[in-house]
Design goal:
L-fuculose-1-phosphate Aldolase, alpha+beta, 11 helices
């Protein structure tokens, strides 16, 4: 547990203090401890100053069971979150624990980061969100954010959002035979998934850079996207993935 906790604190501090990624109580991080339990940021705490006591150990089973119940009221969701804590004296987990629990059950997903980056949200609050999610501008965006992102339409945070993410990620996996590295939530923010905390950090930072390039290219008469043939080629290049592993081990 201590290793996952330390990695989550480092991830939280790095993305919480990064320019344009999150302010105040925005965003959250989580890390898998086992098939039954994971750690997640407590509700209302700040990424940049997160402490060990503000990471809550929760049981996956009650959360996943709650997702099958469909839409419920705020009081029922709060009871579910409080009941999921391993230590009942711990702080209340984030309401977004619901989608973290489902995503952490995916193979090869051990860490998750969720932020509200300024440039990413400029696009997600515009009519061009689908265009940004489905296309790629430069090679590193493909390597770190994936050849395509899942785009989830805006729904209220809680069980409805978790269910919608599950639906759309499942459809993505069925179509592309791999889990997405990045998920875009319209009018809300960004989720990154990875085997390691470094993968998550890289995806979050590169997604925000990609959004800045997209917004800038739009004002200059573009953007000019990479052809799909080139996107697929870069996504499979061994040298690009070697470089990714080097960055993650630094």
């Amino acid at each position: 547990m201590s290793e996952v906790l330390d990695q989550l604190l480092e991830l939280s501090h790095r993305i919480g203090l990064a320019d344009r990624m999150a302010i105040l109580g925005e965003g959250n991080v989580s890390g898998r401890l086992s098939d039954e339990q994971f750690l997640i940021k407590a509700s209302g705490t700040e990424l940049g100053t997160l402490t060990a006591k503000q990471l809550v150990e929760v049981n996956s089973a009650p959360i996943l069971d709650g997702l099958t119940a469909g839409d419920t009221g705020d009081e029922e969701i709060e009871k579910l979150l409080l009941a999921s804590r391993v230590n009942l004296d711990a702080l209340k987990p984030s309401v977004e624990t619901l989608f973290h629990a489902w995503l952490l059950k995916l193979p090869d997903v051990s860490f998750i980061g969720h932020t509200h980056p300024i440039c990413v949200n400029q696009i997600l609050c515009s009519p061009r969100a689908k265009e940004f999610a489905e296309n790629r501008l430069f090679p590193d965006q493909i390597v770190y954010c994936g050849a395509e992102s899942v785009l989830v339409p805006y729904v209220d945070p809680g069980i409805i959002l978790a269910a919608k993410i599950a639906e759309m990620v499942t459809a993505f996996i069925d179509r592309r035979n791999t889990f997405p590295k990045t998920i875009l939530l319209e009018n809300h923010g960004l989720i990154a998934l990875g085997k390691t905390s470094k993968q998550v950090e890289a995806a979050l930072l590169m997604a925000e850079k990609s959004a800045q390039v997209f917004v800038g290219a739009t004002t200059a008469g573009g953007p000019n996207f990479l052809p799909q043939k080139q996107v697929d080629r870069i996504a499979s290049r061994s040298d690009e993935h070697y470089r990714q592993r080097m960055i993650e081990s630094a």
